[in-house]
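seq:
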Amino acid sequence: MKKKVIIVGPAWPYRGGIAAFNERLARQFIEEECSVLLYTFTLQYPSFLFPGTTQFSEDPAPEGLTIRRCFSSVNPFSWVKAGREIRREKPDVVVFAYWMSFMAPCFGTIAACLRRDKHIRLVGLMHNMIPHEPNILDKLFPSYFVNKMDGFVALSKSVAEDIRKFDHKNKPKLFRPHPIYDHYGTLLPKAEARQKLHLEEDGRYILFFGFIRAYKGLDLLLDALSDTRLADLSVKLIVAGEFYEDERPYRDKIRSLHLEERIVLHTHFIPNGEVNLFFSACDMVVQPYRTATQSGVTQIAFHFAKPMLVTNVGGLAEIIPHGRIGYVTEPDPAAIAEGIVDFYEQNREALFVENTQAERKKYAWSNVTSAIREISEQMS
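struct:
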């Protein structure tokens, strides 16, 4: 029977990984002949809480998706109004894309309105349970949201474990790894991408991609890049992403380590239409995170069949077989440098690319939609 699915969370005109996730998930449900609506914010973050330049996408509205902006993250009256409106749509399943405690009161109240209709199943799609940079809200708010859900789909095993800290009723939980982001265009010839980015055609380039905050460990990667072996190999680093914190310490470190000639900075938000340039241009993607659950960057790298180096934190090591498609190291500059040196000295790129092409078949979007269906059916 054709199901009606509503996804609550970021979507166009908002930008970012979770908005991209929700829109791609909606398309998967549509492919499976579901009726889909996306409900998103009129106000996502108050400006003083948002660290970037803008919350909004410059891309046109996605074709073929119905997106309704009807609630503010800080206006409780709009939460009740949204709950009533969604209930009138008579959905079978409502999926809440949850990633931070600040959204728990908003999402929890919308869900409370929906619980009055026993037909509707409420599923928490959990990107994070506890944010990478915890605060007092993480003790006060999450239980309110968790208690309103019928079940959960977690995108990493560590998130599934975190849910248990707030779920005292042992509701159904399924782990499904973050699917591959396959909507950022096609892989370009490396020489073509480098020409467009004004890079050396025969250079050795690794990529740090995504917004820049302390937990993502860019400073660790800069320290690793100062290793004399990497200098001798002429390895260069592309940094592609917007600073979400003070950029001065990073620029000071680049100068103090004398890395100016080996760092290529594109420190602005990378629009969807340019993502493939950066992944096509690099030899390997490096994620030197201090903490993590899962990462959309990893799944973009899978799409473009790029070797990866990740640190052994959160769920990153779960999906990167060490020595097969890349490296899992400790979040330490020496360990990170060792992996990069091995990659180039042992000429592992071709083997890792081949293995990545095989490994990525595990990360289909249908795995997530089937898990959401399974959770909802368990509660029927």
